[in-house]
Design goal:
It comes from Carnobacterium alterfunditum. By secondary structure, this protein is of the alpha+beta class. About 40% of the residues lie in helices and about 20% in strands. Helix 1 packs parallel to helix 15 and helix 3 packs across helix 13.
Length: about 450
């Protein structure tokens, strides 16, 4: 007779299943993340820059340990705080955090309650310090700021949750900036759901300009954004700081008439062939202080009579063709993949708390988790695996069965002998341990 919580299998009644394996873990591969975090000095950076007002007279878990635990849970694929109650005795999590028991769900909830607005700024500062360290290691001198907004669903009467007409649902409307060449998440800001896309974008991006032009100088910055960010305040800020931009413009009647001037049709026109024409003009909208270069792409599909026009405003030199400008802008599409990765892989849009500030803090911790894996992937993975998404990384490397074996003063982590990707695991571990930080 099967004991409690034990099940007999129908295909083979001699096999019974129960969650009583003891000192085993299915997340042994997270030691790769811990090893990378150790080499980048994450714990000390967090301790020095995140100061939380803590009035607890007695506690088992420091704020730093709790936030590291949350990051490991997110990277491991555990999106709910309550996962900690099951993982509390997981030997790998205990080893990663050097604790006999993890913080419970109530402890994590009380942690979120202790955070204030200053802590949000501090989490961004921690992220910036890590970004600077990684950028120095990459030895890159050019950057692309890909700006966008996205949506985070809310459920119930959560603070600052509002209806967004574009997404046709209630929620928040975060503003994000990714580095277009590496996928690093440079900055994120949670906003009310009914805030328009470009609202506050200049205040959002200006600190990044200041940092990368004064504190950690780069040779050039290019800003890419869709038509939601086609606002003079962003153009003028880029021009003032001598940064480049390629920003999509919404079509209007005047621009349409200008574009039609570049389309020529004669009696011998081949209507069965697709046509694409590029042009560049100086154009000044009513709310612009001066004229700016607008690049035009006119596309007529085969058998169609009317061309479809697209417009990009830019301050790139006329030496760069309109076609090259559109090609540069088109690469912005990878940002949509970055946003999906942050949401689906690291629960960037998780809004479990009733308070707006707590949800903002959750988002910032997801930013740290996303970047930690992205740093490790781009710096220490093999050439063939640098493009892996986190779902694949978890399957190949993180979700590995293992057992901690203690003997005297030595502890051994014995991973599954049947781990299919053990060769890749060992290679990445070697790369992490031998990576040279500047």
């Amino acid at each position: 007779m099967a004991i409690l919580h034990e099940n007999r299998l129908l295909f083979n009644s001699n096999i019974s299943v129960s969650h009583s394996g003891g000192n085993l873990s299915s997340d042994s591969g997270l030691i790769l993340v811990k090893e990378f975090m150790h080499t980048i000095n994450f714990s000390n950076i967090l301790k020095q820059n995140l100061i939380i007002n803590d009035n607890r007279l007695y506690h088992k878990h420091t704020n730093q340990a709790i936030i590291e635990q949350i990051i490991f849970q997110l990277i491991g694929g555990y999106q709910t705080d309550s996962s900690a109650d099951i993982l509390s005795k997981d030997p790998i999590f205990q080893s990663l955090l050097a604790k006999e028991q993890l913080a419970s769900q109530p402890s994590i909830s009380r942690f979120w309650d202790r955070l204030n607005q200053e802590n949000i700024f501090q989490l961004q500062e921690v992220n910036q310090i890590l970004l600077d360290k990684v950028r120095t290691a990459r030895n890159t001198t050019e950057m692309i700021f890909d700006l966008d907004s996205t949506h985070s669903d809310t459920f119930g009467n959560q603070e600052n949750s509002n209806y967004n007409a574009h997404y046709q649902t209630n929620g928040y409307h975060p503003l994000v900036a990714f580095e277009g060449l590496t996928g690093d998440l440079l900055k994120a800001e949670l906003r009310s759901g009914n805030v328009y896309t470009s609202n506050g974008v200049a205040d959002f991006v200006q600190p990044l300009f200041d940092h990368y032009q004064e504190t950690v100088p780069v040779s050039s910055i290019l800003v890419r954004a869709d038509s939601g960010f086609a606002t003079p305040e962003l153009y003028e800020l880029c021009e003032e700081r001598r940064n480049f931009y390629v920003i999509r413009l919404k079509s209007n009647r005047k621009l349409g008439k200008i574009a039609e001037q570049f389309i020529s049709i004669d009696d011998q026109h081949d209507w069965d062939r697709k046509e694409v024409h590029y042009a560049s003009v100086l154009y000044q909208a009513k709310n612009w202080s001066h004229s700016r270069r607008v690049c035009i792409k006119s596309t007529r599909e085969a058998t169609e009579l009317i061309a479809r026009h697209e417009f990009i405003v830019t301050n790139l030199s006329e030496d760069i063709s309109a076609e090259a400008v559109f090609q540069t802008y088109s690469k912005r599409g990878t940002m949509e993949n970055y946003i999906k990765e942050a949401k689906n892989g690291f629960y960037f849009d998780k809004t479990d708390s009733p308070r707006f500030l707590e949800n903002h803090a959750r988002m910032m911790v997801s930013v740290l988790a996303y970047n930690m894996v992205n740093f490790m992937r781009t710096l220490c993975f093999t050439k063939e695996t640098k493009g892996f998404q986190v779902s694949t990384i978890r399957l190949f490397l993180f979700k590995v069965a293992g057992k901690l074996v203690h003997s005297g003063r030595k502890t051994s982590l014995k991973l599954s002998s049947s781990h299919v990707y053990q060769k890749l695991f060992r290679k990445i571990l070697w790369n992490i341990q031998h990576f040279k930080w500047e």
